[in-house]
Amino acid sequence: MDEKGVSPVIGVILMVAATIVIAAVVMGMLGGFGPPKKLYAVTASASENATGYIYIVYNGGPDSYMVKYINVSVDGKVIANKSAPPVGWTTSYSGTPGPNNNHVVVSATFKDDTTQVILDTWV
User: What is the pLDDT at residue 95?
Assistant: First the structure.
């Protein structure tokens, strides 16, 4: 009597299926199956005058109605938090005079509690 185990084709199919199941479990654990997050369209700008004063302006955008608050930092130090800022809202900071001496980061938190960096620049 000639007895054989599972054929090689069925073995390969089972290994591929097991790999797919493992990949699906790992992706699910890493949050890979969620819907993509919305990217909001709002902007800010920063400029520096000759004495080193930095001016940060919230320019708004099509999604400005969704902004819950704005957070402004210069060189890692938070200098302003503004709840529901109006378009044109401006804040200033006395930085280090000279080009590209100050790192300005502005982030916006939206009504769905997501946060997005809207400006990351050196002035």
Answer: 86
